[in-house]
Design goal:
15 helices, about 80% helix, mainly alpha
Length: about 350
């Protein structure tokens, strides 16, 4: 196994652990029985906005520093520190967990893009594990988990900091240069960003009645994980446009029957998530190797998709929203990829 593959596997596992640790601090500790902050909605909103929207400025700083593994280690350390702090100052613990999530994602995400571009398979594998970590955080309980989480993250951070070094990058002038993209690239990136906003919104409002069955809930999150992991490989193998059209076409059909037949819902969720690594890789490909900024753009779009949920977007959930979102995503992706193709010709 070469070093790049090892890095991809390690960061994929760490992604699961960091998402589990930080989300469990919010839903299992801060708004759980141990501390029980009353204004739970504000806690969740604070966490999501800092952890996701905050990755954009963090990514810009990361592109100047270019010490991705150090950022990963800092993210692990902050997620551990957040636990004891949360018992004394709950809100500071929430902010530390949010920052831990953001710093880790930028450090790990930028490093994955650096070693895997222009391929999408490794990026798909990396982003896939986070969904399972979040699901796990909402579905486990027990005081031992509260003390296990910081211990695991401290060990992980120390191992990365002391035994896994960044490659040398001494070209400081290149780090400080942000070239202005032309209109076609901006238009293409806007298409990809809107697709991510739609995916984020639909992902957060999906609440099928059959997900109340624990086994089907697990299958649903495994569909999200598998879709993201498979999507990158299929995009590399068959092309981004073909993969996007076929996967979103199947998801559109599946969503039409997803309320009555859980198997169609699982298939639809799996196919709908296949475009995640495609949009990430496409944006990174036109970022002039500013991979922290590129990754931050995608998570900023995720944060935008969360905003309507704050204002009751879950009431919109239904087959028309799912089908319309899938169709609009397909159009936007095809337009974005065609624009990039035109730009390269």
């Amino acid at each position: 196994m070469n070093n790049n593959i090892k890095t991809g596997v390690v960061y994929t596992i760490l992604h699961l652990l960091v998402d589990f640790t930080t989300v469990f601090l919010v839903c299992g500790l801060l708004i759980g029985p141990e501390i029980g902050i009353v204004n739970r909605g504000e806690v969740i909103i604070t966490y999501n906005l800092i952890a996701f929207a905050g990755q954009l400025p963090i990514g810009m700083i990361a592109d100047i520093l270019r010490r991705n593994r150090l950022l990963v280690a800092i993210g692990c350390a902050l997620s551990a520190i957040a636990y004891p702090v949360a018992f004394i100052y709950p809100w500071i613990g929430c902010i530390l967990a949010s920052l831990a999530n953001g710093v880790f994602h930028i450090g790990a995400g930028a490093e994955i893009l650096k070693i895997s571009m222009p391929k999408a398979a490794m990026s798909g594998l990396f982003v896939s594990s986070g969904a399972f970590g979040v699901w796990l955080a909402y579905n486990v309980s027990g005081k031992f988990v509260i003390w296990l989480c910081p211990v695991v993250m401290v060990v992980a951070g120390c191992l990365l900091l002391f035994f896994d070094k960044d490659t040398e990058d001494n070209d400081i002038s290149d780090r400080l240069t942000f070239d202005k993209p032309d209109f076609i690239i901006l238009l293409a990136v806007s298409c990809f960003m809107l697709t991510i906003v739609i995916r984020s919104l639909l992902g957060m409002v999906m609440d099928f009645s059959w997900k109340a069955v624990p086994v089907l809930s697990l299958l649903s999150v495994l569909a999200v994980v598998s879709g993201k992991a498979i999507g990158g490989y299929l995009g590399d193998r068959f092309g981004y446009i073909k993969t996007a059209v076929i996967s979103l076409g199947i998801s559109l059909l599946g969503f039409a029957f997803s309320f009555d037949y859980w198997i169609w819902g699982i298939i639809a969720v799996l196919c709908f998530n296949m475009t995640m690594p495609l949009t990430l890789t496409a944006i990174a490909g036109v970022s002039n190797k500013k991979y922290g900024f590129a990754f931050g753009l995608t998570t900023f779009a995720l944060a935008i998709g969360f905003v309507p949920v704050v204002f009751g977007a879950k009431d919109w959930f239904g087959i028309p929203l799912l089908i319309g979102g899938s169709f609009l995503s397909m159009l936007l992706l095809v337009c974005g990829f065609l624009l990039l193709k035109k730009q390269n010709n």
